[in-house]
Amino acid sequence: MFLSILIPTHNYSCVALCREMSRQVADAGIDAEIIVVDDASDDVQSLTDNRSINDIAYCRLIEIPDNIGIARNRNRLAQEAQGEYLLFLDSDVYPVKSTFVKEYVRMKDLGGVLCGGLTYRLDGPAEVCPLRYAYGMKYEVVQSHFISLNFFMSAELFHKVEFDESFSKYGHEDTKFGMEIEKLGYSLNIVNNPVYHDNNDSSELFLKKTRVAIDNLVEHRDVLSSTSRLLQFYDKLKPFHLGKIIGIPYSWFRGAMERNLLGKRPSLFVYNIYKISYLCTRL
Question: Are 124 and 108 in contact (CB under 8 A)?
């Protein structure tokens, strides 16, 4: 088999990840390539670091001058790939197992999409972003749906689906991708082959991304309403004309909620209220 390991990045150094993937490919004894597409990074340090990727075995770096967004970046990576199988990894992850690549190769005959999942280091982002850490531990570590930061599939299947490039903003492009896989009748297999998610976003940036993702959800509401719990909850409110009332916490108490969410002990209950209330102000 020939495996293409595909890593989209933007303002993040993924040299350590590439070195580990290179080591694991050699250890697995398979034909492989590791491609990184840098989506118009403007952080000089990460861009300089990533240029050393070309010196690592199996690796090559492609730099894009204009920012194209994560969906188009992943499609670009797949277009560049020569492998029969594709392993997509976000740039801010790192494999938990030293046999990570071997595990995916061993499980390739399961077919469909293999979703390896994620976890966090014990000394991970809890201090940098307590909100991101709390949310991830509660909702992401116990994976029940497709998440795009760590997945494996055949190139043939990927090109039947691809990421919807109309999702140009942050968020939910992976939701749509998972929906399309299931529509075609292929399986989404949740397997035990996790990565550490070493996300270093601040709490402020995480909240900003939350709002952008909800904006994207609203923009693609017709497509995502069947799978989004947030939209489904809102639709239950509509017959009772409660949307404006539920929007009050964000409109009136945003500052108080954000003080909690940006603090050292954020409440996920407050975070969920923040999300649904913000959604109601957008619809």
Answer: no
